Structure formats: C-alpha cells, structure tokens
C-alpha cells in the first residue's frame, strides 16, 4: 500500500475510514465480493451476478492474447495503417486511454476513436482517413447503441462507394457480446472478424477484456504485460490481505465514507501523460454510484486552483508517474494545509494503468456496497434514449416535434429555460443564482469537440467554479450520456445543467440501411434530438436546466458567456 500511495492526508477522517474498514472486515466483504456473493449489494441477483466477470478477466483472457496478437500481425502484413473505433462509453473510453497514454508504437496502427455524432466531427474523420488502409472496429457490448449503429451504416456505405461491396466488409471487425444482434449483421456484411466478449461484465468494467485489449494490441501495446500488471494488483486486493493494507478496500471505503459526509466530489488531479484515465474513471464512478438519489461526482477536468475556490465537499485524488515534473505540488500542499483530504497514487510506468483499471473497478464495487446501491446497473440512462427514440419516430413520420419555447434571442444565441431574463447573460446569472457550495454545475456540450472549444469550455468551468465555489464538469453530447448521464438523472438532484447546442455547418446522412445512401435521419438531426431528449429527461426528473443554442460560432458564444461572468 505504501508503495502505491505516495501520500495520504485524511485530515480528521482517519477514524471514520478505520471504522469502515473494521466493519467491512467483520462482515467479510472482500471475501464475499471475490466469491461473487450478490447479497453484498442487494437481495436480488439481477444485474449483479451476471456482472462480476471483471474480477478475474485479467487471468481468464490471457489464453486469448495470442489470437489477438496474430490478428494484429495479419493486419500489419496486409498493409493496414489506421483503425477507426466506433463505440460509446464503456466500448471506447478504455481504448482512448490506451491510445492517449501509450501513443502508437513504430510500425503499428494508428487508432482513432469516434464517439461523437457531431456532423463536423464525422466529416473530418471521413476526410482524413485513407479507405484502402483503414480498419473499422464496431465496438458495442449490447449491439443496440444508436450512435455505433449509425457510424457503422455511414462508414460501410462510404467504403462501398470507395472500394466496392466485395471489398468493404473486409475492413470491418466487430467486438460484442455473444447474444448481440450485430453478430448476424457482421455475417451479412462479411466482416473480417468478430470478437465475442465475456458477457458477464458491463461496459465500464471492460478495459481488460476484448473491448480494451484488441485496440490496445493494434497500437503495439504489449497486452500480456498489461494483464500481468492487472494481476499484480489483483493479488494486492485479495481478501487475505488485511483490510487496512488492501488498496481496493481502502479506496472504496474512502470514496463512500467521504460521500456520506458531504465530500461527494471526487476531484482527480492527473499528470498530463495519464490525463485520459480521468475520462474512463469518470464513467466508472458516475454511472456506478449515481443512482437512488445518491452518487459520487467525479471531477476530472477542472484546473487546479487555490484553496479558497474549493468548498468542503471535495476529496482530492492525485495520480502521477515517478519523475514527472509536478509543477503544482505547492498547490497540492496548500490544499492539504487548508484541511482538504488528499491522496496521491503513484504509477510505476504506463503499464500500471492496467493495475489502476482493476483497482478502481474493485474500489467502486466496494463503494457501492457502502452506499447500499447496485454499482453494476444504469437504471436512468434509458430515459433520455427513450425520449430521443420517440422524437426520431415522430420526425421520420413527418409529425411535428415538441420543442421548448425560446426564452430569448440575442447575440446569435437562443436561450431556453424556465426563468425570466432579458438577455442571455442575465439568464445565466438568474439560472445560477440559487446555486451554492455543495451543488455542482455540469456543462453538457453538443458541439464539435475540437481543441478551441475544449479550451473555452475548460475556461468556462474555471470561471464558474471560482465564482460559485462549486464543482464543475464538462462533457460532450452524446458521449457524456453514456458516462455521467446516469448520475445527472439518478443522483440527489443538486446539479445545475448548462446545455450548449449549435447549428451544424455541415450535415451527414445516416443511411437507413448499410450500403445505400437512402436516409431519413441525418447526424445533424440525431445530435439535435439527443440533446432534446436529454433536456426533457432532465426536466422530467426535476433537474435544473438551461439551454444556450449558438446560431453561429460556438467559440464566440462561449466566450461571450465567460466574459459576462467576469
Ligand atoms: O457497448 P454498448 O452496449 O454499445 O454500450 C455503450 C454504453 O451504453 C450505455 O449508455 C451504457 O449506459 C454505458 O454503460 C455503455 O458503456
């Protein structure tokens, strides 16, 4: 434990955590989790007993690394140069961590991830990829995710145009569960391969399964070494390890006890080389704990500020690699001095990411036990999907769609919400006026996730945090719907949601059937309806939401909002 945790500052919470660990030891919680005893969480095994295979996947899957590596070699021999992975949430976040952390090894395939339905984003991928040398991964556990299916239909049709029908299917592979309806589609369209994943684990617990390992091997990551590192961590978390030295027991108890004591904002400070781990752990914690009016809010994108900008609702988690220049170490010390609880985990090298995947999965399962929730389901995600499907149906039938009445139109912005104001800036101020420390502000941006927008949205977060002393998060739609979307609708309801939408400059059709350009719905319509579906889902759930629609440049609109707050 000491090697793993560089520093632990629990302030006056040490006794609370010691007690929680003692209680857990007496109730043999780690033993029961490893024995896959569903009663740890609920009295009903539904969506628990068939969701625990991640506990051993790093061992079980070692037999399959050879097959995965052989497949990658086959692709390299055939001259493939790049891979476009199409998937949402648990089917794409771990591959993104591997790509952003390890980069691409010489001679291996470059990996791009597509998890945005923004037409501009899809167009830029289409322009950049070389059809001859690109492999497409359709990655979906359920086989029913609308974004993933739409990406498949679009890129397959695109490839038929470029290479012909006989060639197109050879450029596609599928990663899915054995029961998925996509298996038949893969056969129909002559995909080159289908990897069937272990169905007994959820997407956010799948980093060490086919969903993570196949793309990792493609960029030249040594997947056997990854699994070894995960197994090292598994050993450290066995039930025979005293609970106080068991990192998963400790972390799980820490996350949950802090949340129960109003420190429910798990704020990650990650060094740039492992920054993307934040996006993965965000889905894991938010989707696993944000339900039954409870939840831990992962804060993964905020810049590190001075102590005065933080309320006493935080737990800070610092993660770094040895010898990384920690320019912000002084700021961390100030946080400790100001009374904030801070822990610092140190990874030996990039391959330790695999150990961290396992550690946080088990810690989240432990936290779920302490919070008395089922950490393996996502009961509220379906709500916005359902409303979006209804809107799409109406639109396809040519029926009118219910849209909220615009409140204000000014400065190329249209504002929607249940407040009274004369201009967008006043609307934002009025909207946020009841927001107080302990709440959080979530920016939900259904826009092209390019660098310029990202910088501005992060700036908006900083300004909001510093003005209101609240935790802030930012997520791109529809990506966040598969990550933090569950928490937004399932937690206690103290979030303030700022939805940002934009007028697409281009549009791209979603083929009704793969292979033909006939199309009823475009990506532009889909992203609009996804935003609308979630807007209504949040409203129905009595959440506080405002929408700013940018008629022109998103960057100009966001910049105006930032200035109005300063
Ligand atoms: O892998 P898929 O079945 O396509 O699912 C992708 C994502 O969809 C849903 O929104 C779930 O809430 C996520 O947990 C999941 O990761």
Automatic annotation (TrEMBL):
Its EC number is 5.3.1.9. Coiled coil: none annotated. Pathway: Carbohydrate degradation; glycolysis; D-glyceraldehyde 3-phosphate and glycerone phosphate from D-glucose: step 2/4. GO terms for molecular function: carbohydrate derivative binding; glucose-6-phosphate isomerase activity; monosaccharide binding. GO terms for cellular component: cytosol. Keywords: Gluconeogenesis, Glycolysis, Isomerase. Pfam families: PGI (PF00342). One of its GO terms (biological process) is gluconeogenesis. PROSITE patterns: P_GLUCOSE_ISOMERASE_3. Belongs to the GPI family. This is Glucose-6-phosphate isomerase. It comes from Atribacter laminatus. The lineage of its organism: Bacteria, Pseudomonadati, Atribacterota, Atribacteria, Atribacterales.
């Amino acid at each position: 434990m000491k090697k793993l945790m560089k520093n632990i500052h629990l302030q006056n919470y040490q006794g609370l955590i010691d007690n929680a660990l003692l209680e857990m030891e007496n109730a043999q919680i780690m033993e029961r989790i490893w024995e896959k005893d569903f009663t740890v969480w609920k009295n009903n095994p539904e969506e628990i007993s068939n969701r625990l295979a991640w506990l051993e996947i790093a061992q079980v899957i070692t037999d399959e690394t050879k097959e995965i590596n052989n497949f990658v070699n086959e692709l390299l021999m055939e001259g493939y140069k790049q891979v476009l992975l199409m998937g949402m949430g648990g089917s794409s976040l771990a591959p993104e961590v591997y790509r952003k952390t390890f980069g691409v090894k010489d001679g291996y395939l470059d990996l791009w991830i597509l998890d945005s339905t923004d037409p501009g984003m899809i167009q830029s991928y289409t322009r950049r990829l070389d059809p001859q040398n690109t492999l497409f991964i359709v990655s979906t556990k359920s086989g029913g995710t609308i974004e993933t299916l739409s990406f498949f239909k679009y890129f397959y049709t695109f490839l038929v145009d470029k290479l012909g029908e006989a060639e197109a299917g050879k450029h596609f592979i599928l990663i899915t569960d054995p029961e998925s309806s996509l298996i038949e589609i893969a056969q129909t369209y002559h995909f080159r391969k289908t990897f069937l994943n272990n169905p007994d684990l959820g997407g956010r617990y799948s980093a060490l399964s086919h969903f993570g390992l196949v793309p990792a091997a493609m960029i030249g990551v040594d997947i056997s070494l990854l699994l070894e590192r995960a197994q090292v961590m598994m050993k450290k978390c066995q039930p025979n390890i005293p609970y106080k030295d068991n990192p998963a027991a400790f972390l799980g108890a820490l996350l949950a006890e802090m949340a129960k004591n109003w420190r429910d904002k798990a704020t990650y400070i990650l060094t740039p080389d492992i920054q993307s781990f934040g996006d993965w752990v965000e889905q894991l914690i938010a989707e696993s704990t944000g339900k039954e009016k409870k939840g831990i809010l992962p804060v993964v994108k905020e810049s590190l500020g001075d102590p005065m900008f933080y309320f006493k609702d935080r737990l800070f988690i610092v993660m770094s690699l040895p010898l990384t220049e920690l320019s912000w170490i002084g700021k961390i010390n100030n946080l400790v001095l100001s009374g904030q609880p801070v822990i610092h985990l140190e990874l030996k090298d990039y391959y330790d990411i695999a150990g961290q995947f396992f550690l946080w999965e088990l810690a989240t399962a432990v936290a779920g036990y302490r919070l008395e929730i089922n950490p393996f389901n996502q009961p509220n995600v379906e709500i916005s999907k359902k409303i979006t499907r209804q809107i799409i149906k109406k639109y396809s039938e040519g029926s009118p769609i219910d849209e909220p009445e615009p409140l204000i139109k000014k400065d190329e912005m249209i504002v929607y919400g249940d407040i009274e104001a004369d201009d967008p800036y006043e609307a934002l101020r009025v909207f946020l006026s009841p927001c107080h420390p302990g709440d959080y502000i979530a920016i939900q941006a259904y826009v092209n996730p390019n660098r310029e927008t990202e910088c501005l949205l992060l700036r908006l977060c900083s300004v909001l945090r510093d003005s209101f002393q609240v935790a802030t998060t930012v997520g791109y739609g529809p990506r966040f719907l598969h990550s933090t979307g569950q928490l937004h609708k399932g937690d206690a309801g103290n979030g303030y949601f700022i939805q940002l939408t934009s007028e697409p400059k281009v549009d791209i059709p979603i083929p009704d059937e793969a292979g033909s350009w006939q199309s009823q719905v475009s990506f532009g319509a889909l992203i609009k309806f996804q935003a609308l579906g979630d807007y209504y889902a949040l409203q129905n759930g009595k959440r506080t939401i405002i929408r700013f629609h940018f008629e022109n440049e998103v960057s100009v609109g966001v910049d105006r909002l930032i200035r109005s707050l300063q």
